[in-house]
Amino acid sequence: MTTIEKPTYTIIGTRPIRPDGVEKVTGKAQYGADIRLPGMIFGRVLRSPHAHARIRSIDTSAAESFPGVLAVLTHADFPVAADRVEELGETAVNLKELSENILAAGKALYRGHAIAAVAAANPHVAEEALKLIKVDYELLPPVTDVRDAMREDAPLLNENRYTKELGGAKSDKPSNIASHVQFQSGDIAAAFADADHVVEREFTTKMVHQGYIEPQNSTASWNSDGTLVIWTSTQGAFSVRAQLSEILKMPVARIKVVPMEIGGGFGGKLPIYLDPVAALLSKKSGHPVKVVMNRTEVFEGTGPTSGTYIKLKAAEKGGKLTAIEATLAYEAGAYPGSSVGAGAMCMLSPYNIENFKIDGYDVVVNKPKTAAYRAPGAPASAFATESVLDELAKAAKIDPLQFRLQNSAHEGTRMVTGVPFPRIGHEEVVEAALNSAHYRSPIEGPYRGRGVASGFWFNAGMQSSVVVSVNTDGTVNLTEGSTDIGGTRASLAMQLGETLGIPYDTIKPTVVDTDSIGHNDVTGGSRTTFASGMAVYEAGMDVQREMLKRASKLLNAPETDLVYEHGGVHVVSDPAKKMSFKEIAAQSARTGGPINGKGSVLARGAGAAYGTHIVDVEVDPDTGKVTILRYTAVQDVGTAIHPAYVEGQIQGGAVQGIGWALNEEYYYDDTGRMANSSFLDYRMPTTLDVPLIDTILVEVPNPGHPYGVRGVGEVPIVPPLAAVANAIADATGHRFTDLPISPRRVVEELHGLG
Amino acid sequence: MEAFAYVAPKSLAEAYTVLANGKSSQLLAGGTDVIVQLREGRRHCDQVIDLKHIPELMGMRWLPDGTLEIGAAKPLAEIYEDAEVARRLPGLIDAASLIGGIQVQSRASLGGNLCNASPAADSPPALMVLGARLVIGSSSGTRELPVEQFFAGPGRNVLAPGELLLAVKVPPPGPHAASFYLRFIPRNEMDIAVASAGAFLRLDATGGRIEAARVALGAVGPTPLMSAGAAAALVGQAPTREVFEKAGAAAAETATPITDMRGSAAQRRHLVSVLTIRALEGALQRAREAR
């Protein structure tokens, strides 16, 4: 571990057992599917079998009269939603489109689009009743590829959608291109004319899914007093509450959202799908209603990330990256809102380039509306940039990591948005990669090769609330509202232990429902350990101040002569006079009552994250199979609060990126049907498909956080796509520019088939 | 999932009676295909007939001529864990140990794998090159047929109403002979063959000439396919790389693959040749070791 300017910590940097670990491995932890309520019934959702169709009518009468059916729902049951964009945590949401995505109105825009829902005494009856709902569809031609959708003569998903052009202008004609963004600086024409080497390539990536193990689920109980309780699997209970409030036109305080343990999200559990459906089925039936998706519904009906087309041209002169020109087109799915903007902003962020022009297009297609997926937008654009950089380094006869190092961004380098970076760690990361045992080892043998790539992610801050309650035995309850996806109960308790100087195992962290704590934004943007960690630090300092007040009475010394240190208070002028945290806590009832601390933050100063990955592959030229021989991920993690969970995040991100590079894709037939909507045919890597991912944690503390924390969860998915492609190019001499680099693609391209 | 009755006959006679009761039936051996298909609405029935309580379907024995007779519902794990089977018929073990994971293999059977009639199933090519025969029973008696005549199309077999697959009979390969089966999957587990190949070789006493050969292919046609062309390219020849490559090319001509989410027609045709050569190399090595 490389440590730069890191203070000595007691708890931070250790590897204690996570508070939720035992319950999870013994199967006792409660997930949404475990909810059982008295009188509970079951909902199922009818989904469009067509990728693009006008809904002429929906006849639910036969389903309603089917024995055992207690409620049937269509979009007509929703209050009318406003056609405006709301900022709901990390995601900006058009409420009309959100509600039409939850239950279609007027048009089915993708296969799997929810059309109606039924609640019945058991799920099998509900399933039978779905078959009795008659939907009269007028079939329309589907468009599922981003370039096809951009053509002038493409079928339009929405005849009233015009392109939001640069500077707020609107296109003359309706279009599937929802918006056009642009970033530019310098003089690319001059730089290209003056270059030593220019490389221009076109890249495509396919729509891929986060692949969380736990399907979406929601259980709702609409109470007779007009309140609503929702038990759900979500990355943000408060965001669910806000979205429900808007869609159901209910005051926020009347909705309670209980976040259950979550079986993975990766960004995909930010939007809501089932919660309003369960809520209104409960309202109509008078029973609590539980709705759980199956895997096909998850693939077809929730938000994956965009398929993309990227054209990129880059130039190098004397070893310096001088110009980049790029066009990015990202599939938004059925409604606008792809991550093309983030893709455009991230793709050059590891580097210092004076001349660039990037155009990004957000394009609707007849596929599920995309959602966030781990560093949304960045992996595809990094695939393009880092592949082309590899070729430029080769043309310039410079080691690919050395090339990245000498073109690296650093403190003061401007992002494409013009904003200068604060202290960042890309140079340190590339240096650590250059010096790694992996990179210094030889790679030999036929059809073996090595690739490297860097990646960037912004990381987010946003709002968090926590409460710290000190018990009279010296233990502490840490009450928080951030979904724990990656071990944040542990990382927050550790930061509190560090702040208060008390042992980790005296702190009990709990994620509570929306009635029980103030607002918390979603667990997304790698923000929880960072931003909720800041709130924990504030709450800890709040407790420290209260402890000083109490100690002043107990030690008979003015507060100005007291200091809180090492888990207790002592008198500065007479250090022998002291009390421990536990001793002060024990006296709280007679020194002023319970000792509580609160932390409430709008966190600024999220530190950007950089990673550089090294991968060795072997390609079987006869079968096209790529075997990952060795993989090392180097990352600036700021401060590793719990190094094992940091490593876990890096390993998980790398594995998802490897899957994206090699096998994962939404495979569509000509009718717009996803043909591989199961984990059998949607090929994520298994444990047998990847070696142990080695990690090197570089710690360049984030100056914007009391403990130097940087988000770590997202950037590790950014480099693998290009790193793997670069390794395959090294192994085969063939540059693959279309993902996935599946065995099919490898044999077809290497043997000139198809 | 739709409602259905569950019946578990204890004897063949009882099973034939239940089969004839006029209801639409789904036969259940290990259930590793059928239960999933019923849950996903891909199969429908009035009754599920569980065959695992019929002793004749759960046994395995060596016949006097060295033929192995395997009850149709015998779990795969019990087949490949038998040391004698592994020693005499490694080419069968190649397939039996590939179907599903450990839990699946503790339930899944050869009979189920055959009756499910997936073109991509692992056991058919392995059994076809071994010259296996199937024993089919009904209330009026039994009949036998070569395994390659059992398949009628994707998901369809030739069992007539009232018939049950009772057993698989695998003859001994004989001296200087062995088989080998392999498949190609993009991952290392949790996958279905994109293409597969089984090969059988019998050498003369010197080991320098191929006396008999069979090549069978999976996932490259509506049913598992025998490649007569590949066999013809091998018989009478020396077991060399060049000869195997000719057999691989002939096998690729036998294949009639489609393009789907698991692979393209061009990829599959290419793989048939690669896998046939590899299967022949595996069979050759075993045949040379076999005494």
CATH architecture label name of the largest domain in chain B? 2-Layer Sandwich
Low-pLDDT runs of chain B: none
In terms of DSSP E residues, the strand content of chain B is 15-25%
The percent range for strand residues of chain A is 25-35%
CATH class placement of the largest domain in chain B? Alpha Beta
Instruction: Please name the fourth-level CATH homologous superfamily of the domain at 420-458 and 608-750 in chain A.
Output: Aldehyde oxidase/xanthine dehydrogenase, molybdopterin binding domain
Would you list the SSEs of chain B in sequence order as H and E?
EHEHEHEEHHHHHHEEEEEEEEEHHH
Tally of helical segments of chain A: 21
Q: Briefly note the CATH topology name of the domain at 420-458 and 608-750 in chain A.
A: Aldehyde Oxidoreductase, domain 4
Helical stretch tally of chain B: 12
**What is the β-strand count of chain A?**
31
Largest sheet features of chain A: 7 strands, mixed
Radius of gyration of chain A: 27 Å
Derived structural class of chain A: alpha+beta
Number of domains of chain B: 3
| Average pLDDT score of chain B | 96
Tally of strands of chain B: 14
Helix content of chain B: 25-40%
**Termini distance of chain B?**
53 Å
Q: What is the name of the CATH class of the domain at 420-458 and 608-750 in chain A? A: Alpha Beta
Name the helicity range of chain A: 25-40%
Descriptive keywords:
heterodimer; A: 754 residues; alpha+beta; Aldehyde Oxidoreductase, domain 4; seven-stranded mixed β-sheet; 21 helices; globular; B: Enolase-like, domain 1; 3 domains; four-stranded antiparallel β-sheet; 12 helices; 14 strands; 34% helix
Structure description:
The complex is a heterodimer of chains A (754) and B (291). Chain A contains 21 helices and 31 strands. Chain A has 754 residues and is of the alpha+beta class. Among the domains of chain A are: 170 residues, Aldehyde oxidase/xanthine dehydrogenase, molybdopterin binding domain (Aldehyde Oxidoreductase, domain 4, 2-Layer Sandwich), CATH 3.30.365.10; 182 residues, 2-Layer Sandwich (Aldehyde Oxidoreductase, domain 4). In chain A, strands 4-8-2-17-14-15-16 form a 7-stranded mixed β-sheet, with helices on both faces. In chain A, strands 1-31-30-29-21 form a 5-stranded mixed β-sheet, with helices on both faces. In chain A, helix 10 links the parallel strand 19 and strand 20. In chain A, helix 10 packs parallel to helix 11, helix 11 packs parallel to helix 20 and helix 15 packs parallel to helix 16. Chain B is an alpha+beta fold. Chain B has 3 domains: 46 residues, Uridine Diphospho-n-acetylenolpyruvylglucosamine Reductase, domain 2 (2-Layer Sandwich), CATH 3.30.43; 116 residues, Uridine Diphospho-n-acetylenolpyruvylglucosamine Reductase, domain 3 (2-Layer Sandwich), CATH 3.30.465.10; 113 residues, CO dehydrogenase flavoprotein, C-terminal domain (Enolase-like, domain 1, 2-Layer Sandwich). Chain B is 34% helix and 24% strand. Chain B is built from 12 helices and 14 strands. Chain B has a 5-stranded antiparallel β-sheet. In chain B, helix 11 crosses helix 12. The radius of gyration of chain B is 19 Å and the shape is globular. The N and C termini of chain B lie far apart (53 Å). Classes of the chains: A alpha+beta (754), B alpha+beta (291). Chains A and B meet through helix 4 and helix 21 of A and helix 12 of B.
